[in-house]
Design brief:
70% of the residues lie in helices and 0% in strands. It is built from three helices and no strands. The protein has helices spanning 2-41, 46-71, 97-103. The radius of gyration is 28 Å and the shape is rod-shaped. The longest helix has 40 residues, at 2-41. It has 105 residues and is mainly alpha-helical. Helix 1 runs antiparallel to helix 2 (46-71). The model has no long low-confidence stretch (mean pLDDT 82).
Length: 105
């Protein structure tokens, strides 16, 4: 049972890393816009440099998350990756003794 549990944990980690990567990408866009805006309003101001610093931080985090995702590429298993119960045909059902007696009465 351990390999299945490990695979589920692995998939959760990859999914969360993708969400974090999206957050970092939004941060890069936000701080890039802020750096451009403050750079036009007051070039060389403290606000511009703080925006540039935060842009650099979010860019580094985005690159790190991207590299981690590439390193943790989900191995192909040859099966579709959906998590519903398998669709297997069930075996023949056995009727209870009472149902069997009523059917032959």
């Amino acid at each position: 049972m351990a390999p299945k549990t490990e695979r589920i944990e692995f998939l959760r980690s990859v999914r969360q890393l993708r969400r974090v990567r999206s957050f970092y990408a939004a941060g890069v866009l936000l701080w890039a816009g802020s750096a451009v805006w403050s750079g036009r309003q007051a070039p060389g101001s403290r606000e511009m440099w703080v925006s540039v610093l935060l842009l650099a931080v979010f860019t580094a985090l985005l690159v790190t998350a991207g590299l981690s995702l590439r390193r943790l590429a989900v191995p192909a298993t040859g099966r579709p990756a959906h998590h519903a119960a398998p669709h297997r045909a069930t075996g023949p059902r056995h009727a209870s003794a009472q149902t069997h007696a009523q059917a032959h009465a």
